[in-house]
Amino acid sequence: MHTNVEQIFSFIDTESTFIEEQQSGTYLEGVVYALELWITNKKVPTIQEAEKEQIRKAVQLAILKGMKKSVQVNHQMTPDAIGLLVGYFVKEMAKDKKELAILDPALGTGNLLYTIMNILPTENHAFGVEIDELLIQLSAQTAELLACDIQLFRQDALKPLLIDPVDIVVSDLPVGYYPDEETAKDYFLHSEEEMSYAHHLFMEQSMKHVKPGGYLYFLVPDTIFESKQAPKLHKFIKENGWIQAVIQFPSTIFKTKGQEKSLLILQKKSEELNAPREVLLAKVPNMSNKEAMELFFQKIDIWQEQNAK
């Protein structure tokens, strides 16, 4: 007997392959077509009542297959192992909140954001910003199937955003140079010597759109504090927020060397709060090593208890 995840993926895969082979479209365009059939009830997968996580995982598998075929730089998805770990931190650090407003300024297909929203027990409303038309279409369809409370904005996230400050920002930051020099000039983190780093500007934009005391969870390059533009980033963070944690992921999660990322957790300064007693610096062990992972989570629990005093 096939699982719901297998059945949903098989349904999407069949329709996507039809579009690819018979209609001269791409596989990802076929995924859009398949999800539209499902949403409008014109054709649906044969499944028992599916949970949100089963739907998300199946859609993710189909999108990943399409991304492997298209090989576009901006078509990348945050690995599930990372999404679940970020979700754990968000859940732990927001457990006193009854409801949350969340922003992802680099939404992509929404996989990271939806993973976190599925984990949170609280009421949550989200905002997502994405400039790529195909990615935001896939994100919108996935949100509809998951019944997520989200508003989507198709635009350059570094241009002015009509979004009120949120409790939390989560983002797998796009890494590289930002080509729009005119827009970059409006940022403190604009570089005078070379093109500005997009991931730095995204961090500044995110800080503007989070409430005082709010948290920001960024997936950043391991080398973020070693670059030529790092001194200015250090200054910006010191003036506007506190570093709560830097969590390095195992290199085995990433396909190629040089793609390694860490989770950088910041908190926006607030007059009512104090800086953390201690910044958590940790490296995630091999995730298949159960004992090592238990010790890792114990370390996090101890750090949280000490910071709460």
Question: What keyword list fits this structure?
Answer:
single chain; about 300 residues; alpha/beta; DNA polymerase, domain 1; Rossmann fold; 2 domains; eight-stranded mixed beta sheet; 10 helices; 8 strands; about 20% strand; globular
Percent of residues in beta strands? 15-25%
Apparent shape: globular
| Helix/strand order | HHHHEHEHEEHHEHEEEH
Q: In whole angstroms, how far apart are the ends?
A: 51 Å
Helix content percent band: 40-55%
* Residue-averaged pLDDT: 91
Strand order of the largest sheet: 3-2-1-4-5-7-6-8
Q: How many domains comprise the coordinates?
A: 2
Counting DSSP E segments of at least 2 residues, the number of strands comes to 8
CATH architecture of the largest domain: 3-Layer(aba) Sandwich
What is the fourth-level CATH superfamily of the largest domain? Vaccinia Virus protein VP39
Low-pLDDT stretches are none
Q: What's the main sheet like?
A: 8 strands, mixed
Enumerate how many helices there are, as a single number: 10
The CATH topology of the largest domain turns out to be: Rossmann fold
Identify the CATH class of the largest domain. Alpha Beta
Structural class: alpha/beta
* Radius of gyration using CA atoms only: 20 Å
Walk me through this protein's architecture.
The protein has 309 residues and is of the alpha/beta class. The chain has 2 domains: 4-70, DNA polymerase, domain 1 (Orthogonal Bundle); 80-308, Vaccinia Virus protein VP39 (Rossmann fold, 3-Layer(aba) Sandwich), CATH 3.40.50.150. Helices cover 43% and strands 18% of the residues. It contains 10 helices and 8 strands. Strands 3-2-1-4-5-7-6-8 form an 8-stranded mixed sheet, sandwiched between helices. The protein is globular. The mean pLDDT is 91.
